[in-house]
Amino acid sequence: MVHINSITTAATIAVSLTSALTLVSAHIPLTTHSSGHGSHALEKRQAAPAAPTTGPSCNTTYAPVAAGSYPAIDCVPFTHDPQVQTWLKLVDFSKTPVFPPSQKGVCPTDKTSIPQDQCWWTCQKCEAPDDITSCPTTGTWGLTFDDGPSPDSPRLYDNLLEHNQKATLFIVGSRAVSLPATLKRAYNEGHQIAIHAWSHNSMTSLTNEQIVAELKWTEKAIFDTIGVTPIYWRPPFGDVDARVRNIAAQLGLKTSIWTQDFDTNDWNIPAGAATPQSVVDTFKGWLAKIPSMPHGFIVLEHDLFPEEVNVSINGVLPVAYATKGLLMQPIAQCLNDGKPYKEGAGTFKLLPGGSGGSNGTNPGNKNSAIGLGDAREGQEVLTVSAVTFFVAFVMNL
Ligand SMILES: *[C@@H]1O[C@H](CO)[C@@H](O)[C@H](O)[C@H]1NC(C)=O
Ligand SMILES: *[C@@H]1O[C@H](CO)[C@@H](O)[C@H](O)[C@H]1NC(C)=O
Ligand SMILES: *[C@@H]1O[C@H](CO)[C@@H](O)[C@H](O)[C@H]1NC(C)=O
Ligand SMILES: [Zn+2]
Hints:
Residues 139-329 form the NodB homology domain. This protein has 13 helices and 7 strands.
């Protein structure tokens, strides 16, 4: 492991993430800064903006959300809102473990200072028994895309449709209310729609009440658009601990992360710290180890920035479609769960063969889930670029 430890490295990354903001369409504001918190010291995992630059600032003066409306885009919703107050009654906070909110999800320098039972995924690599972090069957890939719907999502959906490929989409509430027609399309095409968050802040940095507000407003935005209530959710940046998990579980949500180290780093392309080639190389490196894993895996990818969609449709997915024995499925499919919504199946169709069986719908993916024919190809490109190491280290701060 390369050890680079200085404030300067963190600041460099923060600045490059901020510049990524300028790539975003003006009508989809993405400025992420919560009321009551300082500017981001460091963002991890995704190209979320590090500090307010463009777009609306979050107004710190409380006003109730108007009937039929939603909280300010990309701002942590107010918890005094009467609607939120109603939702708070769904959770018995006396059952919620008490851990202090983090500083923007950044791990303390001394990670051993974190109590074991906090089980903080990002800082302790701790998985709780109920966390969904892999698909059960070897060779099965839980295909997921986070942070949409964006103006670039339709290009991803086109590609998936062309290959009769379904995915799990973790939706940001603020994006859903900006592009409801895009979300509707994704749902109508049978993708598994799931919850991400409203403002895309680190969940461990929020209060119990703010966590409820983030999850329930996103759930409501999705329900208002497609008429179903997702059961699966993914914490932004994978940032979850025992406190956050408990609240999500009390709201009936299943915490779904990704398999440790199965982060394509696609989010680092718009941030300027990865290239499409390094992302594809990372992915090809996995192909070598997938056949010998005792289970399948879930991969982190995104469809917020054009670079992320481009690397999926031009780089990662074509290789994956062509890899014999690799079966890509939405998470609910690989877990053999035909009811990913509180209302039931919705448009989601559970294929026979369930948990990573041999009935993939892609022509290239109908083989049994063993003997990944092209796996050796991956070993040749296992060398990960220095920039990937560098970023991987900064993310682990
Ligand atoms: C902030 O919100 C308050 C309450 O709705 C409103 O009166 C005020 O004009 C807002 N300020 C800005 C800068 O938008
Ligand atoms: C993404 O791909 C499209 C279509 O090929 C291209 O027009 C666009 O410039 C690409 N965007 C980026 C940021 O790479
Ligand atoms: C495979 O799945 C397709 C689509 O659901 C279905 O029509 C077909 O009967 C299945 N085949 C087997 C062998 O289960
Ligand atoms: Zn995200």
